[in-house]
Amino acid sequence: MLKSSSYIYLVSRAHGLATHLLKPDEIESLAKTSDLKAFLENVSKGDYVRWLGGLDKESVDAKSLSRVFASVYVDRLVHLTRITSGRFRAFLTEYLGRVEVENLKRVLRAKMGGKPISLEDLLPLPREFETINFSDVVNVKSLDDVSFHLAPSPYREAVDAFPLAKSMGSTYPIELLVENIYFTNTLEAAAKLPSAKSISEVIRNEYAASLVYNVLAMKFLGSPMTVFEKYTGMISKGLGVSPEFVNDLLRSREDTVVGVIRGSRFSWLAPYIEEAVEKGSVVELYRAVKRGFAEYFRSIGRKKPLDMVYVLWYLYSAEYEYINLSTIATAKELGIDPSEIPIF
Amino acid sequence: MSSLMGVSASRGALLEVRKQLQFIRKSTQILEMKRDKVASELNRLLPLLKGREEIESRFTEVYKKFVKVLVDQGYEEFRSSSMVVPKVETRLQRRLIMGIEEYDVELVSPPNVEAIPNPAIKELAIEFHKVFMELLEMSVVENKIEALAYDLMNTARKVNALQKIIIPSYEELIKYIEERIMEEELSEFVRTKFIVERREK
Fold first, then answer.
1. Chain-chain contact of A109 with B80 (C-beta, under 8 angstroms)
2. Over the stretch B141-150, which tens digit does the pLDDT of each residue have?
3. CB under 8 Å to A251, separation ≥6 — which residues?
4. For the segment A201-252, what is each residue's pLDDT rounded down to a tens digit?
5. Best residue in B84, B109, B114 for a mutation probing chain A (most A CBs within 10 Å)
6. Nearest neighbour of B72 by CB, restricted to A110, A170, A327
7. A277, A260 in Cβ contact below 8 A?
């Protein structure tokens, strides 16, 4: 089938923009730098000099560096979205919603705990890509007031989780629904793209990885599965699987859960998490899931360099670069041995 | 009239000093009881101190895990997750038992670590909270031991001073007054006898 010019343009631009990403060996050599100052000097040699050049090398810390890396990550996503149009832009705008979801989580948590929060505490997303007016939301007095701002937004269904969240004293149920809505909306926008099937598959796998991590972590911690059980229908719809699979995932014991995953369409995740499940360690599970998904999307990107999936590969690569750089900066500040720094 | 320690050797003074000695002996007995009680309380608490090493090693383990989770999740996620937990309120309670100051730390509103939405940070917070509470209990025990040990030292010193210095000096004083009274009574008797004999002559 003949590909449209905007499709070719987007994939070409993704290829061009991908040259600005750090190569895996560059990330590894950054991890091997002696300290935070050396890391900053090395990372500033490439494209990052634009954002890091103005920083005072003597007083810089991992926290401020992470903020810069977050800005670069959001800039990359916004830039690609702005240069596209039509259904591609619609999809990328939905994809960009993950930044808004992250910001929403931060606001919800602050309001739940009655702590102050300002726009400086959020990822810098341009207003045109926000469906919630964060300038107003950060100033509301209580968690209930946040629900008023969510009601007219794409996250309106998450308002349903507010009573449960308040009774638990945790934003977890709301966050779970917001994430579900985000993935559902992104998948809906992906369905209109030329390579809908493969793109949806990658996004579903990302959602599955996140869900598997959350469900298993809750099992390890012995926390009740009430929240997941209540929204099984929504979760299974978002994942594109039967509710039985979600139920099996929730009800299976720790020693059989890997088998449930292995028997599903998300079997690619099973080998990565096996060891962490055996240990019952949340930290190990987090790293395993991150590593598993990173290897998964990289393999897909390599296989289809002229497909829309490559654009998705670029977007995930930008996100993982942000994660890796922030991780290295924090590790350098804490004086952690390079061999112990998790790089995905 | 002769005097010792500013006390005149009279029958009234003797009664007063005897009364004082009786009071001092009773006080000494009470102090001895207090000393024994404090010592037994110290003996009960001291073995608990052995647990400190284990708590400290667990605290070190949790700290190592904290570093690992911080590297994974980053400062922003840590800050954001911690915001869910409302302000922790504690109350320091001061109690005075037998003149010994004791402090208890009461958690008025304990941290709701179960509310943390990030599972990795939640796991860490649960472990940290547990070991922190144990460390807090240990610090209360240590504080109690310090106060008891200080009081035991003071009480033992007081008991010793009473038994070895004050009571013997009072006993000596009583003996001295008694002797002086007896001497004065004898001299008074001799004088009276002399006067009577002179009159009869």
1. yes
2. 999 999 999 9
3. none
4. 999 999 999 999 999 999 999 988 888 999 999 999 888 888 999 999 999 9
5. B84
6. A327
7. no
Are A283 and B114 inside 8 Å of each other by CB?
no
- Residue A332, min C-alpha distance to chain B (Å): 9
- For residue B107, give Cα distances in angstroms to A282, B92, B129: 28, 9, 12
Tokens of B54: 């284990």
Instruction: Determine the distance in angstroms separating the CA of B120 from the nearest CA of chain A, rounded to an integer.
Output: 6
Mean pLDDT of A154-175: 94
**Crossing angle of the two packed helices A86-112 and B51-82, in degrees rounded to 10:** 130
Query: CA of B97, closest CA in chain A: separation in Å?
Result: 39
Nearest-CA residue of chain A relative to B122?
Answer: A221
Contact A31, A93 (CB under 8 A): no
Give me the residues of B, 55-74, that contact A with CB < 8 A: 65, 67-72, 74
Asked whether the beta carbons of residue B65 and residue A283 sit closer than 8 angstroms, the reply is: yes
Q: What is the pLDDT of residues B92-137, one digit of tens each?
A: 999 888 888 888 888 898 888 999 999 999 999 999 999 999 999 9
Q: How far apart are CA A205 and CA A304, in angstroms?
A: 17
Q: How many CB atoms lie within 10 A of CB B145?
A: 16
**Record: contact A112-B123, CB cut-off 8 A:** no
Interface contact flag, A330 B75, Cβ < 8 Å: yes
Rounded distance between C-alpha atoms, residue A26 and residue A220, angstroms: 36
Rg of chain A on CA atoms, in Å: 20
A343 close to A43: Cβ distance less than 8 angstroms: no
**Encoded tokens for B132:** 């922190």
- Please give the average per-residue pLDDT across B60-83, as a whole number: 94
- Dihedral angle of Cα A104, A107, A109, A114, to the nearest 10 degrees: -160
- Return residues 117-136 of B near A (CB < 8 Å): 117, 119-120, 122-123, 126
In this complex, the residue of B69, B84, B119 whose CB is nearest that of residue A113 is B84
CA atoms within 13 A on the CB side of B16: 9
Distance from CA of B66 to the nearest CA of A (A): 10
Contact (CB, 8 A) for B118 and B81? yes
| Structure tokens, A103 | 């910001």
ipTM over 0.90: yes
Q: How far is residue B40's CA from residue A11's CA, in Å, rounded to a whole number?
A: 81
CA A234 to chain centre: 19
Scanning every residue of chain B, which has its alpha carbon at the shortest distance from the alpha carbon of A107?
A: B80
